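Justification of computing resources. Each target in the renewal requires a structure prediction run like the one illustrated here; the chain below, 764 residues long, is used simply to show the kind of job we budget for.
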Amino acid sequence: MDVLAIIDKVEEFQPKVKTRPKDNEPLEAYSGKTPAELRGMLYTMLKARRVEREEKLLLRKGYNRFFIGCGGKELIDVCFAQTLRKNDPWVGYYRNKAFDLHRGSTLTDKMLEAIGDARGPNKGQQIPAHPGYPDLAVLPQSSPTGGHALEAAGLSEAINHPLPISPLSHYPGGAYPTDAVTVCSIGEGSTSEAEFGRAVFYAAFYKTRFIAAIYNCGWAISVSVEEQFPEGDPTTPFEGYQRFGLKIMQVDGTEIKDSLARVAEGIEYTRSGKGPVLMNVRTTREGSHSGSDDQSFYMDPVEQDWHTYNDCILKTANTLIEDGVITPGDIKAMWDELDKAVTEESQKAVASFQPKTTELIESLVYTYDFERARETWKKYRDAGGIDRSEKYRQFHEKGYFVTPELPENVGPMTMRFAINYTLFDLFMLGDDVILFGEDVADFSGHMVEEIEKQSKLKGKGGVFLVTKNLQREFGNYRCFNTPLDEAGILGRAARHVYQGRRPIPEIQFLDYMSPAYQLLKDRIATTYQRSGGLFKMPLTIRTTYGGYKQGAGAFWHSEGNLGTWMNIPGLLIAVPSNAYDAAGLLKTAWACDDPVLFCESVALYNRRDWEGVPIETPVPDIDELIPFGVAKVYNQENTDIGVITYGATFQMARKAAETVREKGINVRLVDLRTVKPIDEDAIIQTAKDCGKVLVVTEDRFPGGAAATISSIITRGEGLYHLEAPVKLVTAIDARVAYGVDGDNACLPNVDKITAAIEDLHDNY
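Resulting structure tokens:
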């Protein structure tokens, strides 16, 4: 129903005469809310509807480019906002305008948001109704819903986690108190996403303080709820979880007394620690899904009438009038005041519109700054007061390491040991560092507590033993196993960040990142930009990548497709080729404020040489970090051929360079070390100095990292110094076939690199 029609109907309402209760008198029928509070709730509901009306007007005038309605959801929004504590985190979606306003967002915020103004809280980065307000405990929103439920459940778990948050954290002491209730509001259509099911599972499994409020208007765009769930009820798939503490509630989101009572009941239940809550909240849809939809095309006229006459604002106003809480005249005065205020704010915003610049947008994609990362590292190191020499002596006595020496004094080692040592050093920085994933712990289940039995077993510590002894030393709260659920791993990790930790989740193989792709691409990597710089995401995602597993990798364990991940704005990517770089880059990744995909080549974990060329190195001093975007150039004096690569193929290139040196070909080698950011200066300088460039990657062509590297050369100054076309040796456009012959046929190898170098040298 149009809001102006509501005001007219309210003015016509003739209630029975009632004595007006005192403003500060708690009313039992309204769950103890006072008339003043109730009038404030109605005021916010009207404000949200008036803002929505203004957005439609701005759309018609060309100032607003997109509209998505919140009409019909205002009552349940303000009931939550009125009943929750101010520091209970809200993980919402694009129908929560009334919640934002009742918790404290301003008309200025909403008008700037509507027109995409650079001065808005999120600096105009998202379409309207996608805010994030750290000071109001409203987390940043995004359009791909469903994933936010998994993050919300993860946040409730992170808040419930027993380890304290350091005063050094980006949220000192933790963003939210340990008894905070995390609420996820979500449309009934989005509960069909796989992430929602996992969210309910994790909340029930860990018995967290979590409410999933399903705003059920009966329609996901034009798909009826009858075609989505048994009995048209999105809670039915989860009835079995009631055995484990899940409370399922049915709420009439059009009736203020029922909504207030049920919301208070749900909050009290979960805050007491009894378990999570799943609410099916019946709401109306006062307008179509969005400005591009028209529900009159597909909705039964009888159902349209139901939505119209059950409008929560109309029903709330009439109920409050009936009970003497407010008069029709009061409501008309409210509306006139709001109408004037919104009109003025809208006109002011439009008249002073500040457009976004390319520079502003680019500044919001990454926070990375090497000096700031070093400051973060130093801050934690200085506060730790750890005697590392004594610690490593103890670790040696416990059998974790073969020597009591500090890692930097051990001498050359394989990459696996370098990463394991570095993880130990990271864990010694404090409880903000936690690591979890599939098989990462030494022990699982009841064996976690069986210390005597543990002493007789080697323990797991990762399928490649990279995380070995971390759980044994630092406990199951800091290093623990997860279910086989990549989306769950990253969703939970992101919310540990929102609580103030710097987690290190592990995805066992890059091949299996796919289930988490949406969370990584659309939520984790966009956090800084979509929030307008209000929220950061310091998150290091360790994963193995690539082939060369003696032919055992095949389709599902050989992916080196970094080009896929390079194409995600906001995500940094490190690919070390040796122990020294692995240790230095991992410390930088942990200390920076962006999400980092830290790619570890399985082929390099335990290799001491590559076909006779030694590849073991020492590790850097504890306080030496390696900057991202700075390649390491070997044999810089050589200018016959420049080979640009990273990771395992760098070691192959070393062998190939040694082979062709016997034929008088002098090769410069460039190890990029990170491909996001990528060292464009080193790439271009190599082209200028050498004139002939070979790019080698495990990634495939077309697309892939090699295409990006070659285009850096050919798009500008480097092109004019080339004496031959840029030559590529990449994986073929196929998944890796089984067996050593499959590796040889599908992937770069020393022979292919050697042949390519010789071809460049001899034929151009």
